[in-house]
Amino acid sequence: MDISTEAVTRLTRDRKTNYLIRPVWSLDSRRVAIGELDGGIVEVAVDSGKSVPLAPKPLFARSWTPDGRSLIVSHGYTSRISSLTPGPDAKPSLIAETPYSMRAITLSPDGRTVAYISDESGEFDAYIASFPTFGEKRKVSAGGATHLIWNRSGKELFLANREGSILSAEINTSAGLSAGVPKMIVPVQSNLVDSRFPFAVTPDGQRFLIPESLGQNLAPEGFRVVVNWAAELK
Q: d(Cα 142, Cα 70) in Å, to the nearest integer?
């Protein structure tokens, strides 16, 4: 959707038989890596809608590297994270594997830090770690997180919590890793609760795109049965 005109254009034009999930923008905004529901990744050119297979199942795209050459991928719905440089003989190179669930894995703009959501503390919280070693790690959120996005500056992480608020945490990587206490910047939005993909943010970090619940405008669930309907036509 063009935000300035609200004109909506279908991006994928030659995919008819498979469900597509988890679109991941390249940093130059010219390509989108999209996962197929049963595994595998296709790359779609934004200007033409042409799709090209990038990786077979069970790989899912998580984040592009800043140079646009490689993808951070997960092996199916597991917490095995690898780097993949697409090509005829492409093979994923394992980066990390944990017994905990990992979500919303996203590289920082400079490619030196990775942000993700994990349940290793017993509930899902936001973390940052040095990349690609994962040797240094810091917990960012306290009280849960459902989604996160980097500010293009690489010095700020936006995250949503379970209550449906969006918070901002300062990130410092100049001397090791450190994260400030998250501060609320968008108050509670009931439609964000329990959503893994609740918002987007402009590159300057000043505007947010938040899905709006239709609430009571939704049609009631179920079926209506009309009997003797032919008599209604007379």
A: 32
